[in-house]
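User: I'm putting together a small comparison set for a docking exercise, and I want a reference complex before I start. The sequence is below, and the ligand is uridine-diphosphate-N-acetylglucosamine. Could you produce the 3D structure with the ligand included, as structure tokens?
Assistant: Of course. I'll restate your input first, then give the structure tokens for the complex.
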Amino acid sequence: MDRIKIKGGRALAGAIQISGAKNAALPLMVCGLLTDERLMLDNVAKLADLATMAELLAQHGIAAEPVGRTLSLGGAITNAEAPYDIVRKMRASILVLGALLARVGEARVSLPGGCAIGTRPVDLHLKGLEQMGAQISLDAGYINAKVNGRLRGAEIMFPFVSVGATENLLMAACLADGQTILANAAREPEIADLAKCLIAMGAQIEGVGTDRLIIEGVSALHGAHHPILPDRIEAGTYACAAAITGGEIVLRGARMADLGAVTRSLLEAGVEISETDKGLQVKRLNGLHGVDVMTEPYPGFATDMQAQFMALMAVAEGASMVTETIFENRFMHVPELNRMGARINVHGASAIVRGVPFLSGAQVMATDLRASVSLVLAGLAARGETIINRVYHLDRGYEAVEEKLAACGADIERI
Ligand code: UD1
């Protein structure tokens, strides 16, 4: 099994090209189910999760063929079942449910179940589709859904913000009969990107970028060519790499607005960030200060940046409190960071981080995608050698992480 070895202590300097966003690419690939025509997606990163989505679509009858950085999707739906073996690898597989129902009137999708960062139910996805006229039953670990005729438009008020449920229902609503209103919808940039692609495919959507999406269903969608937006979490992660090593990195293609509250927290911590037409320039010349953060839906501080920011706070001056409000079990990086000399205590949904002058290299274990990359950041700053085990988590969401960091002077290799 691959491991990553890092010799820490080098200030990073250089430029990193930010890849297309994983969390945008996943629902955008599902749009391939919504039309008989060809859908072309540009700026698609090479990531394990996207390969899993391609595998899922292939067994529904939709081929996803890479042509350089472009993914060409096309085919006809031949099978409406998303099997356990694929869904268990990646929870985002649930996103095919609404699209299959809208296109072929039925779907059988394995229940995703829990995952390392929490129980993560899909009740909002199912309730919304029921409101749109689907009949849903659960049996043998599968969601069985069907609808007589077309899905109908409905007014759906989410009790709390869910990125996945917003995406699933948005896609389904585009082909429903009549108007759908999604209220308290998620506003993540990836959702606006999905809406843009759907509009290019002929969908009628208003309120893009707000928490109230109004969709007039149409009878069919056509092909389109859509460029995927840059990955704001990858950009935020490499901003932390510049900050934790006291270096300076240009994040090519990154956009400040996509980072939401993460930018403010980095600035408060003493990191300098400026936007140019090429992307973001991130540097740290002076010391880091402890800053409190609380994860929230966009534009609040992203839960997908929590572990990386905590690694940064581990070497900041003073204390910081990191509160996780989105997932109930997202502090698995804490014991690993503590093995490297960090002083972090978890109390319920909050972690108190008492900054230390330096971290020390150690053998550590990756537990999920963002936890893994927080250990890479810690390793870059630590004295001595860090070995990170189970790096397959990293490959789910970071393209060429060692190459990108090594190009900025990091001593990092895969072994
Ligand atoms: C997406 C992102 C993930 C990110 C998360 C929050 C993708 C592929 N993944 O995940 O990287 O961390 O948004 O920004 O885009 N919930 C329910 N019932 C539901 C749906 C969600 O209780 O039906 C809960 C979840 O357990 C979680 C919270 O709502 O506690 C938010 O989850 P959600 O926004 O749906 O996250 P995902 O779409 O799974």
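The first helix runs from residue 22 to 30. Residues 295 and 400 are 27 Å apart (CA to CA).
User: Thanks, that's exactly what I needed.
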